[in-house]
């Protein structure tokens, strides 16, 4: 299936977030310095901080880290900036919520002092209650605040991709209860709301936001069966569908880079 390269859309009930919320000046300064002199310090370091999607989980009991969005992003960046080497640390852990991420942000992000952090939580901890939404926002705020206070790193928040929206036979028998819950959350707008929360945190904390949810909504609007893009039939994009997230983050970076080059 050919995936559309649409980054933003206006679908029923959902308006895409602005992507240029916070600057990526530190990241760009490091790119420029390395392009001028490859001996100028260590390679650029990106930390991909998130849950099982970031870890590279696809089908049940299957990891494909070579196909994950941040590996695809690394390849795009090295093609765009051939004089620069980008190192990416995969700091994704399956089953984690943003609250879990907050507990380990010092160990897995701050300790390595990266140049850019991709923060991608939300697939776990989803809920329609005000309590679950407030907990997600508070945890994201804590993650961002800690990174900003204790590193020079720029940050890109990724909104959550689509969950399953229909019954399907990809799901294993033991996960069918989880499937019904995710269908309800996706179709009721709870996943959409979590994506809006990530955008709110981006605006409030002045960090960039890559609206992955909007990119998936664009696929749906164009007639793509988004549930068929889930390797486990639940919430893990297929290897090919990780291109959606990679393109969305790359577009945020390149949009700001082009504006920088005009100055």
Structural class: alpha/beta
What do the pLDDT scores average to?
A: 91
CATH top-level class: Alpha Beta
Helicity level:
40-55%
Elements, N to C (H/E): EEHEHHEHEHEHHEHH
Q: How would you name the CATH homologous superfamily? A: SGNH hydrolase
Task: List the domain count as a whole number.
Answer: 1
Question: Could you give the distance between the termini?
Answer: 40 Å
Our estimate of the beta-strand percent is 5-15%
* Number of H/I helices: 9
CATH topology: Rossmann fold
Strand arrangement within the widest β-sheet reads 4-3-5-6-7
Uncertain segments of ≥5 residues (pLDDT<50)?
A: 1-18
User: Main sheet?
Assistant: 5 strands, parallel
Overall 3D shape = globular
| C-alpha-based Rg, rounded | 18 Å
Q: Please identify, by name, the CATH architecture.
A: 3-Layer(aba) Sandwich
Defining key terms:
five-stranded parallel sheet, alpha/beta, 263 residues
What would you note in describing this structure?
The protein is an alpha/beta fold. It contains 9 helices and 7 strands. It has a single domain (about 10-260), classed as Rossmann fold. The protein is about 45% helix and about 10% strand. The strands form 2 sheets. The chain has a 5-stranded parallel sheet with strand order 4-3-5-6-7, with helices on both faces. A two-stranded antiparallel sheet has the order 1-2. It has helices at about 25-35, 50-55, 70-80, 100-110, 130-150, 175-190, 190-205, 210-220, 240-260, and strands at about 10, 15, 45-50, 85-90, 115-120, 155-160, 210. Mean pLDDT is about 90; it is low at about 1-20.
């Amino acid at each position: 299936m050919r995936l559309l390269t649409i980054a933003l859309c206006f679908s029923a009930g959902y308006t895409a977030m602005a992507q240029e919320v916070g600057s990526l000046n530190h990241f760009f300064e490091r790119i420029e310095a390395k392009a001028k002199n490859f001996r100028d310090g260590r390679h650029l370091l990106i930390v991909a901080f998130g849950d099982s999607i970031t870890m590279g989980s696809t089908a049940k009991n299957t990891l494909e880290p070579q196909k994950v969005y941040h590996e695809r992003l690394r390849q795009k960046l090295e093609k765009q900036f051939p004089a620069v080497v980008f190192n990416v640390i995969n700091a994704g852990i399956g089953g984690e919520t943003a609250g879990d991420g907050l507990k380990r942000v010092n160990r897995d992000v701050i300790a390595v002092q990266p140049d850019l952090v991709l923060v991608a939580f939300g697939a776990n901890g989803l809920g329609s209650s005000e309590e679950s939404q407030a907990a997600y926002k508070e945890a994201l705020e804590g993650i961002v605040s800690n990174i900003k206070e204790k590193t020079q790193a720029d940050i890109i928040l990724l909104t959550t991709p689509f969950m399953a929206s229909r019954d399907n036979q990809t799901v294993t028998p033991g996960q069918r209860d989880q499937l019904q819950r995710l269908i309800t959350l996706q179709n009721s707008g709870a996943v959409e709301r979590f994506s809006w929360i990530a955008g709110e945190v981006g605006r409030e904390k002045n960090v960039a936001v890559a609206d992955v949810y909007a990119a998936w909504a664009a696929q749906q609007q164009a007639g793509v069966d988004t549930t068929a893009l889930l390797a486990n039939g639940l919430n893990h994009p297929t290897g090919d569908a990780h291109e959606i997230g990679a393109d969305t983050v790359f577009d945020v970076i390149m949009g700001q880079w082009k504006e920088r080059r005009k100055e």
